[in-house]
Design brief:
Layout (H helix, E strand, L loop, with lengths): L9 E2 L12 E2 L23 H19 L26 H22 L5 H23 L9 H21 L3 H13 L3 H14 L35 H19 L5 H26 L11 H16 L5 H22 L18 H33 L8
């Protein structure tokens, strides 16, 4: 058999010979310099990596939603498994059942997709189903130590059903060409998966900050109070809020700069930042339709959002003229500024959650809005740490493309 032709992205050492261990395959750069190598990467080396990162992030979300507010821990005064022997709850809300079912479907899908690299479809689905059952049972048991939460065997059953449903969907569709096409799009547009997949998982986690439709788009700072006049549904006009506009602008720049650093080329980065803002707006709108009163359906928009969004997008577009390390530096600074601005501009005397715009009367409301707030506070630090590590990695790797 004749030797295989070298990969078209293979890079040789500067001295003309192969580097230690053989040639280093590299993917196309983000610039117009076609021969500039990037990080060593084999196109089939990281199948399922992104699903595993997303599954781990979503598992943290499940833990938060199940155990928040993480206060008031005390002994239940009985066996922590006593709830398993209780009868059917007297009051069962269809809404609660639907939420508990749907909450575990993504977890089942992501974990199964992440296991398909090593296991057959049926084995991956079985392992994921058992993991979802164990996760739900463990969290319900821990709820026995939280006076504000009610442990229920019915919740375990419904959560497990959602996890099994997600696992079966992934097992049925996980090897379809659709997922391979998605992976190829990622490979063409993003840095090598070993680098970009953790960042893409952080982007997926960032979308959770938009779950609260009562706060502005791309910000979690509450709008100035402007409750509707009772009996009319009319919301009186209010003044322009400069702090909200500033935070929207900073957050827009930070989020766009972050996603831009994961892209190969300038036009990929431009499309990615536009898609990021569009998806955030879609999440806000869907959450508003599901949770808010009709008269305040667009409370998350306004002149502050338009001003901050336009300024942030213009600044982010200007980053396309910088080299990659420059974009990384600006992204780190913007993320840290976002973290500081949120705590400086927020007024601790105001309630974290204005309840009047909502039409929900369920306990999950506080969980979801609290989740959005918590992720918004912690995400800038996690994203800045990721960009800092990426900047050090790029600086230490020979032949990494500097420009976008």
């Amino acid at each position: 058999m004749s030797p295989a032709a070298p990969d078209r992205h293979t890079v040789s050492s500067p001295g003309g010979g192969d580097p230690p261990g053989g040639a280093v395959p590299a993917s196309p750069p983000m610039s117009a310099e076609p021969r500039t190598p990037v990080m060593p990467w084999h196109p089939h080396a990281y199948e399922g990596r992104l699903a595993r990162y997303l599954g781990a992030a979503y598992l943290l979300v499940i833990v938060y939603a199940s155990l928040s507010p993480f206060s008031g821990w005390s002994s239940p005064g009985t066996s922590p498994f006593a709830f398993l022997g209780e009868g059917w709850p007297r009051y069962v809300s269809k809404f609660d059942l639907a939420i508990n079912l749907l909450a575990y479907v993504p977890l089942g899908m992501l974990l199964t997709l992440g296991l398909l690299r090593w296991l057959p479809s049926w084995a991956a689905a079985l392992a994921t189903s058992l993991a979802c059952v164990a996760t739900s049972a463990g969290l319900e048991t821990l709820q026995m130590y939280l006076p504000g939460r009610v442990a229920s065997a019915l919740d375990i059953a419904v959560n497990a059903a959602g996890g099994v449903l997600g696992a079966l969907l992934a097992a049925r569709t996980g090897r379809l060409p659709l997922w391979a096409r998605i992976a190829r799009v990622r490979d063409r547009c993003c840095l090598p998966p070993a680098v970009s997949d953790p960042g893409l998982a952080l982007v997926g986690l960032w979308f959770l900050t938009q779950l609260d439709p009562s706060t502005p788009l791309l910000a979690v700072l509450p709008m100035p109070a402007a409750a509707p006049i009772p009996g009319t549904g009319f919301v009186p006009p209010r003044g322009f809020s400069l702090p909200v506009a500033a935070l929207v602008g900073i957050n827009t720049l930070a989020a766009c700069a972050f996603v831009m650093t994961l892209m190969r080329r300038r036009w990929h980065a431009l499309v990615a930042m536009c898609a990021l803002v569009a998806c955030a707006a879609a999440i806000k709108l869907l959450a508003a339709v599901a949770m808010l009163r009709p008269e305040v359906l667009l409370i998350w928009t306004g002149p502050e959002v338009a001003t901050g969004l336009a300024l942030g997008m213009l600044l982010a577009a200007g980053l396309l003229a910088l080299r990659r390390r420059g974009v990384l530096t600006v992204g780190i600074v913007a993320l840290l500024a976002s973290f500081v601005a949120l705590h400086l501009l927020d007024d601790p005397r105001k309630p974290v959650l204005p309840l009047w715009p909502f039409q929900w009367n369920y306990g999950q409301l506080l969980n979801y809005t609290g989740l959005a707030r918590t992720v918004a506070e912690l995400w800038p630090l996690a994203a800045a740490a990721f960009l800092y590590a990426l900047r050090r990695r790029l600086r230490g790797a020979a032949g990494i493309p500097r420009p976008l």
